Amino acid sequence: MADSSRLYGAIDLGGTKLRSIVADGSGRVLGDDIRRSRTEEGLEAVLDRMAESLDASLAKAGVERRSLTGLGIASPGAVDVVRGIVPSAPQLPDWQDVPLARLLEERLGLPTRVENDANAAALGEHRFGAGRGSRHMLYITVSTGVGGGIIIDGELYSGKGGAAGEFGHVTIDVNGPPCGCGANGCLEALASGTAIAKRGEELADSGESEILARLRLEEGRVTAEMMERAAKMGDAASREAFREAGHYLGVALAGFVNVFDPEVIVVGGGVARAGDLLLDPARATMESRAMAQPLKGVRLALSELGDFGGALGMLARLRETED
Ligand SMILES: [Zn+2]
Fold first, then answer.
1. CATH number of 7-117: 3.40.50.720, 3.30.420.40, 1.10.220.30, 3.40.50.300?
2. Contact 111, 121 (CB under 8 A)
3. How many CB atoms within 10 Å of residue 210?
4. 222, 197 in Cβ contact below 8 A?
5. Which of 8, 105, 120, 175 is deepest in the core (most CB within 10 A)?
6. Three-state DSSP class for residue 286
7. Of residues 164, 156, 192, the one with CA closest to residue 177
8. Please, are residues 120 and 162 in contact by the beta-carbon 8 Å criterion?
9. How far is CA 217 from each of CA 206, 226, 281, rounded to the nearest angstrom?
10. pLDDT in tens, 150-185
């Protein structure tokens, strides 16, 4: 059984920010820290910052590093979970087959596990968040990119090498725009924050959205978050861009419902904070396209853990690996 008196460290490494926590086995966070990851400064600098962030969390928790049972890292990329290697990821420029677990073990003296960040967040939402109590859950994160994780019978499904759950790279439009993965028309190329912002730039350029053109002048390039504000200020073009992205998301969700027959689909990531702007059209399309039997009773829920999901998922991973 999990021992709630044990203490764990976990770090969610992102392209722009890294978040660390120190928590007990029940998921209670005793100390946490967030700082910029500054990946452009290279691997060594990022490792330093991860160590500094963990130490800051330890200090807040009043815990010494040697009291930790283990360290879990949620990382971008198709992580090799067996060997703890990060092959490469667009968010981590210059990283190539980085043995992240070994490097951190050497540096911090703690047994370390690495998992894909979206898979870790799926586990976190299942154990501690919006998926609590379900047996079959899908997690989809919509932010700069689109990722996901699959929980089957209460366990994270990782595939043969740890890369399962790449919901962002299912084809939605065979003639659609190019995607970072090398294919085209992927969900990520149509419904990610990057794709929505690209549409926003077009709306500002063409004069279809005066509000976006003005905000761009004041704040710099268009972001999905800027478009969310514009939509709330009454900008019909921004609202329509979210509706369109939500529609594509719904097309994908309908397919996932048919394949997995889940109880709950948890939606997280920065763009999901746009809430109903994205989720209402996604839900409507999902309901109109999915098959009746698997659709019955499916819940579409917003993430409850926000940017703590990946770190708490790693805590669950460490806790349960010991059992
Ligand atoms: Zn793709």
1. 3.30.420.40
2. no
3. 13
4. yes
5. 120
6. helix
7. 192
8. no
9. 14, 12, 30
10. 999 999 998 887 889 999 999 999 999 999 889 999
For residue 189, report the distance from its CA to the centre of ligand 1, in Å: 7
Using the Cα atoms of residue 42, residue 44, residue 47 and residue 53 in order, give the sign of their dihedral: negative
DSSP 115: E
Distance 249 CA to ligand 1 centre (A): 14
Letter for the amino acid at 299?
A: R
Nearest to 167 by CA among 134, 182, 189: 189
Q: Distance, CA 185 to ligand 1 centroid (Å)?
A: 7
> 259 C-alpha vs ligand 1 centroid, how far in Å?
19
Residue 31 CA to ligand 1 centre (angstroms):
36
Q: Are 48 and 55 in contact (CB under 8 A)?
A: no
> Taking a C-beta distance cutoff of 8 angstroms, is the pair 151, 121 a contact?
no
| Cα–ligand 1 centroid distance for 282 (angstroms) | 19
Separation of CA 72 from chain center:
16
Residues in the chain: 323
36-95 pLDDT, tens per residue?
A: 999 999 999 999 999 999 999 999 999 999 999 999 999 998 899 889 999 888 778 889
Q: Which part of the chain has CATH 3.30.420.40? A: 7-117, 130-304
Overall fold of domain 130-304? Nucleotidyltransferase; domain 5 (3.30.420)
**Distance (Å, whole) CA 307 – CA 311:** 8
Rounded to the nearest integer, the mean pLDDT of the chain is 94
> In 131-273, where does DSSP find H-type helix?
187-191, 193-206, 210-219, 224-232, 236-260
